[in-house]
Amino acid sequence: MTKTINQPILNPTKTPPSGGWGATLSGPFTQLLTMDNLPLRGKLSDDQLEIISDAGILHKEGRILAVGNFEQLRRENPDAEIEFFEGDFVCLPGMIDVHTHICWAGSRANDYALRLAGKTYLEIAEAGGGIWSTVMKTRAASVEELANLTVERAEKLYQQGVTTIEVKSGYGLSMDDEIKMLKAIQLANQKTNAELIPTCLAAHLKPKDFPGNEREYLQYIIENLLPEVKKQNLANRVDIFVEKGAFSLEDARYYLSEAKNMGFDVVIHGDQFSANCASLAADFQVISIDHLEYADEREIEILAKSDVIPVALPGASIGLGERFAPARKLLDAGCPLVIASDWNPGSAPMGNLLVQAAILGAYEKLSMAETWAALTCRAAQALKRNDIGVLKKGNKADFIVFETNDFREILYRQMNPLPPNPLKGEFGRV
To answer: Are the C-beta atoms of residues 340 and 99 closer than 8 Å to each other?
Structure first.
């Protein structure tokens, strides 16, 4: 059976229909970028991209069975349902956003306006804004309210072609409220088409209402919160913000050591306003160090000799009017590079991953291959995932489709993928 699809499908639905799926052949695509067989470190040129012309994807029950020439796959699989794409289309793996804060309540639009008017962060905080205002509003919200807000933001990313989204806690900053946030993320994952990956960021900063110092707050988290997170299986990842006004290197060493001993994967916010975190990241073999706006030559050299993945967050640079992470230098030194949105209510309220990546690419002179790798195959490694980010046999049938005949048009025009299949009302598979 053949059906013509003028509006393509992104991500497979999470739950198969009763009776399961049959095999489906989707295509033909004018170009299909597999993002396969690329080195996971260092610079890339566009001629390294594996591009299949007149391509198809054979998939069943959410997994790819084969990728190749559409007509050949059709001949070899005569019983497959054909999902026929009429016209010119380019197919890529679903994008992966490895750093977001999309679980929050309230708004910081006033903060943004004040920042544009020249107010400093301290002045904004003293006027009742800043992160603590988000904490208060998030604490006041229910699990259901936070879940619905998270779903709303996740779906906006999903409509842009982001099919896997890391989501942090960190606006609760108490035992009960951090648990509430992680439960909200868990609930949101059941309601959104995207896959949500939770991270516990209780070490965002010491809350104003905690009676002790920073080290005592971290000890409180370690002794009380993290065991409960582990017990309830709410997150396998732990993050900490290492910066003046947040947590020191010494406190971070203590926290990372304890979290790793408990079996958590660890990441850090680092080098956002000062250069001092590379050795910390390397010593503790964190999965990634995110921000890096102030990473200097020494920091880059340390990271290049480690397995730590640098994650650039251009949305924070744009939102704060700060410098961009030195993406070009990181790649030239042999580092991997991942690009994420940092979507949050304060410093990075833009929430458009592809546009941010295109801006960073133009500013830092990234090849299109480097940018796409930073959003797909290399991003998957920052989440320790080997089943997404690459279109190949055995991986998730997680792909996005753009209405163009040339993949270079996508970043050039900051295109959105075509919307969900209207027959299904979601990005799903029959």
So the answer is: yes
E-only strand ranges, 38-130: 51-60, 63-69, 81-85, 90-93, 95-97
- Classified as helix, coil or strand, 124 is helix
12 preceded by a cis bond (ω within 30 of 0)? no
52-66 tens-digit pLDDT: 999 999 999 999 999
Query: 96 burial class (0-12, 13-18, 19+ CB within 10 angstroms)?
Result: buried
Cβ atoms of 289 and 308 closer than 8 Å = yes
CA distance 80 to 93: 22
DSSP class of 396: B
Residue in 240, 289, 282, 235 with CA at minimum distance from that of residue 262 = 235
- Could you give all domains of the chain from N- to C-terminal order, each with its CATH number? 2-93+390-413 (2.30.40.10), 96-382 (3.20.20.140)
Q: Tell me: cis bond preceding 28? Omega within 30 of 0 counts.
A: yes
Q: Please answer whether residues 287 and 266 qualify as being in contact, where contact means their C-beta atoms are separated by less than 8 angstroms.
A: yes
Q: Is-contact 59 82, C-beta < 8 A?
A: no
d(CA 288, CA 301): 15
Structure-token match 């200097």, residue found: 296
Contact 101, 157 (CB under 8 A): no
Residue 10 has pLDDT above 70, yes or no: no
> What band does 21 get if pLDDT is binned at 50, 70 and 90?
low
For residue 247, the cross-strand partners are 242
**3-class SS of residue 180:** helix
